[in-house]
Amino acid sequence: MPSERTRNVLQAGAFLRQLAASQAVPKEVRQEAYRLLRHYPTVSDIEAIAEHEERLRALTQSAFVRP
């Protein structure tokens, strides 16, 4: 369901932030978590996607968009 998917994306972002900040985690893991977070959607990004969900769905189902 969309709400579960949204919640999981937000929880995964929070988990990556915890990994990136934890000194108990190996440096390589912290660096990888930080690298992933650089392009991870923010709460604002997710809110914007939710606001435009119908329009985005219509665009991705267009004949001009390949699956």
Report what the structure shows.
The structure is a single chain. With 67 residues, the chain is mainly α. Helix content is 72%, strand content 0%. Helix 1 packs across helix 2. The longest helix is centred in the first third of the chain and has 20 residues.
Write the layout of secondary structure elements.
Elements: H1 2-21, H2 27-37, H3 43-51, H4 53-60
Helix pairs in contact: 1-2
Features:
mainly alpha; single chain; 67 residues
What is this entry, summarized?
With 67 residues, the chain is mainly α. 72% of the residues lie in helices and 0% in strands.
Distance between the termini: 21 Å
The assigned structural class equals mainly alpha
Q: How many helical stretches?
A: 4
Beta-strand share of residues: under 5%
What is the succession of H and E elements?
HHHH
Give the C-alpha Rg. Answer: 16 Å
Number of strands: 0
Please state the average pLDDT score: 87
- Morphology: elongated
The major β-sheet equals: none
Fraction of residues in H or I helices: over 70%
Low-confidence stretches: none
